[in-house]
Amino acid sequence: MRLERHAFEWVCAAAAVAVAIHLGHLPVWLVVGLIVLVPMRLLQRRHDGRSIPAWLRMPLLAGLVAAVVVRYGNIFGRDAGSTLACGLLLLKLLETERIRDARAALGFAAFVLMSGLLFGQSLGFTAVVCLGLIPILAGMNALQPAPLNPLRRVRGELLAGARLLGLGLPLALAAFLFLPRLSAPLWGSPGAFQSQRTGLSDEMSPGGFGELLLDDTPALRVGFDGRVPPSRQRYFRALVLWDFDGRTWTNAEPPTRDAIETVASRSPPLTYEITLEPNFGPWLVGLDVPLRASEPVRMRADRTLRRERRQSDLRQYRVESALDYVLGESLAAHDRARALRLPEGFNPRARELADEWRAQARDDAAIVAAAIERFGTDYTYTLAPPLLGRHSVDEFLFDTHAGYCEHFSSAFVFLMRAAGVPARVVTGYQGGWWNEVGDYLLVRQSDAHAWAEVWLQGRGWVRVDPTAAVDPARIVRSSSRTSSGAPSAVADWLLGLRNQLDIVNRLWTQSVVQFNALRQQSLLQPFGIERAQQRDLLLGLAVFIALVLLLATAWAMRGQRAQPVDRLDAAWNSLCAYLRKRGADIPPQLGPFDLLARVESGMGDRTVAANLSALVHGYVQLRYACMEADATAVNDLARRIRRWRLPAGVRFGA
Amino acid sequence: MNAVTRLAQGLMQPLLALAERRLPALTRLRSPEALPIRLHRRRIYVLPTMFGISLAVLLVIMQLGALNYANNPALLLTCMLAGAACMSLFAGFSAFSGLELVAVAAPECHAGERCELALEFKAGARARAHLRLRLGNDDTVFALARDEVRRVGLPIQPSRRGWFRPGRIKLWTDQPLGLFVIWSWIHPDVGVLVYPRAEASAPPLPRGAQGSGPLPAAGDGEEFAGLRDYRRGDPQRQIAWKASARHESLLVRESESSRAPTVTLRIADLGQLDFEQRIARLTAWVLAAEAAQTPYRLDLGHESFGPALGDGHRRACLKALALLPDAT
Question: Complex ipTM, two decimals?
Answer without folding.
Answer: 0.77
